[in-house]
Amino acid sequence: MLKKHLFVISLLMFTAHILSAQKAVEAKPKELKKVMELKMPDSTGTNGAQVAWHPIQKKYYAAFAGNKTYPIAVFDIKGKLISPKGLKTQFDVRGLWYNPIEKNIQTNGYDTLGWASYTLDAKGIPTGVKTIFTGSHQSTSQSAGALNAKEKSIYFFNEDGNIDIYDLRTGKFVNAITLYLHYTEEDSDNAYLEDNYDEIDNYNSTTLVYTGIPKAEIALLNYNNKAIELYNIKTGFLTSEMNLPEDAMTSAVLNFAYANNIYWLFDKENRKWVGYR
After folding, report:
1. Position 59 in a domain
2. Maximum alpha-carbon separation in the chain
3. φ and ψ at 172, to 5 degrees?
4. Which of 22, 29, 87, 253, by CA, is between 20 and 30 Å from 16?
C-alpha cells in the first residue's frame, strides 16, 4: 500500500512539473522573425511614415514622412515595387490606412495639415491626393494615425502614453483610452499606475498600431527593449510581448507600422521596410 501511495505522489509531482514547464513555455515572449522586405526607391526622405495594406488591390503602400515631395511606393503581395520610382506623396504623410467605407488609401499629415485621401488608378497607383479635413485632427504634430475600421475610429498615441480617439467620418476628437505602459492587470494595485511618466521614454512616441486581435488590439514599440507590446484596449493593460531580433532597427519616432498582419520597422540606412511576424 505504501509503495502505491508513493507511486501516486510521484506521478502527481511529475505531472505538476510538466504542467509548470508548459506554463513557463507558454509565458515566454514570442520571438518575431523577418518575413519580407519593401525596398523604397532611392531618393529623398529619411523617416518611414507608415505602411498600409489594400485588401482589394492586394498591394502594400509605403510612404516617407517629412515633405510632400518625398516618395510613396506601391508593392505587390510579394514585396516587388510596381509603382514609378519618382512617385511622390504630394502630402506630408504621417499615418496611412485603407478606408473600407470609401475603399481608398487615406492619411493624416504633419501638424495642422489634416487628413487626405489618395486617388488611385486601375492598377492601384496614386494619381492625386484630396484633402478631407484641414487643421489639427490628431494628438501631436508628428502623430501617425491607426484605423479601427469596426469602430470607425482613428487612434493616436498621445504625449501621456494614452490613446486619443478621433471619428473617422468627422475628424473630431471623441474620447481617450488610458494605457498602463509595461504593466499587466496583475500589477493593478501598483501605486505607479497613476501615470506613465517612468515608462513613456522607452516607447516610440509617435506611433501605435491597431491589430484587431481580441485582448491585444493595440501594439506599441518599446524601442529600448526591442520588443512589441500588445495591450487590451478595454483594460489598458499589457497582455503579451514579442521580442524583435537583435539586428532589428527600432526608432523613438515614426518608422513603425502594421499591415497585412505583419509588423514593420523602417531601416533608414538601407531605405527599406522590414516585416516581422
Report:
1. yes
2. 85
3. -90, 150
4. 29
